[in-house]
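Posting this for the archive.
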Amino acid sequence: MLGLTGCAAAGGSEPVGPNGLPQQLVWSTYNVGTGTYNDLAAIANTLTNEEGVQVRLMTADTGIGRLAPLVNGTVDYARAGDEYYYAFEGDYEYASEEWGPQDLRMVWAPPGNYGMLVREDSGIDSFADLEGKRVPRLTANTSINNKMEGFLNYGGLTWDDVEQVPMAYGEQIAGLEAGQIDALYQNVVGSNINELASSTEVQWLSFDDPDPARYETWEELMPMVTVGEITSGAGLEEGESARVLEYTIPLTTTADRDADEVYHLVKAMVENYEHYEGTTPDTKQFSFDAVLKEPLVVPFHEGTVRYFEERGVWTEELERKNDELVERGERMQEAWPGVVESSADEELERNWTEWKQNELDGPQNGQENGQENGEGNDDEN
C-alpha cells in the first residue's frame, strides 16, 4: 500500500491551541472557482477569523492529485470526489501495487447536487439525445466518468454511442464555450458555472423517468448517489426545476488522524456555521442538520462519531454500520499484500475484485459493502 513518504502536513507538528486545534492545517480540494473550492475557502476563512487556525487549500484537477497528498502526509484533510471510496476499496486506479486499499475516514459529509449541462440550443433535451454528440472523457477522473457512463445508460446508450473527447475536469466549461464538447458534468452551483450561465443559455438534463431499468447499472457505477430535484442552480429560471444527482463530497482524512483534533474541527465548523452559512450556494449543506449522518461506503472518523454521540444523533444502527465498514477496511488491508504477491501486474485488479466478491460481498457475509443507493458521494465539485 502507498506509504507515508511525503513531507509532514502542517497540523502534524503544530502545537494545539485552547480550542483543541493546531495553528495551521492544509486541505486538498478542487480547483479555484469550483463550488467545492468556494465552500472550503469560506470555511477556511471562518476558521482563521474565528478560531485563529490558518487553513491552506491545495488544489488539483484529478482524483489522485487530491488524494495522494492526504495519504502521503502532505495535507491533513481532503475534500475529494469518489476517489475517497475507490481508495478505501482499492478499486480502479487504486488497484495497483503502489496503492491498494487505504485506511480513510469521513469527517464531514455535506450533500450536494451534480448533473450534465448542455446548451439550450443544442437540440439535446434528454440523455438519449447525446447519441453521436461530443461528450468529455475526463483525464484521471474515474468517478465522474463512471457517473457519465451511468447517464448514458439511463438514455439507452454507452460510451461507444458518443464521440469521446479527452480533457481535464477544469477544461470542460471552456470546452463547451469553444464548441469542443456538447455537454459537461458539473456541480449545479459555483462561480465558474454561474459565469457560463450568465453568457450562454444552458439547461440541465433531467432524470424524469422512474423506470428501474434505466438505473440498473448505477449500483455498480455509483453506489453512493440518488436522484434529487433542484429548483435553483446555474441556468434555472424561477419556477423551473430539474432532477439531477445528489450525493456528498465529504471532507476526509486518514484513520490515524488524532481523534481530539477531528472532534474539535467538526465542533468548530458547527459552532461557527453562522459566519459562513450564506457565503456560497452550498455552504448551507455544511450545517449540522444537513450533513449526512449515515456511513454508506466509508466509515466516519472516531472524532466525528464522538461529536455525533455528544449531539445525540449517533444510534446503535449507525454504530453497527460504521463498525462493519471499519472491519471491511481492516480485512481488505490485511488481505491486500497476499493478493499482490500472488498476482501478475495485469491480473491484480481482476484478482482483487474476485477476492472481494468471494470474501466480502458474497451472500455468506450478509453485508453488501455498505452500498445502498442513497445519499452519499466525487469528482464533481
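The chain has twelve helices and twelve strands. The first helix runs from residue 10 to 13.
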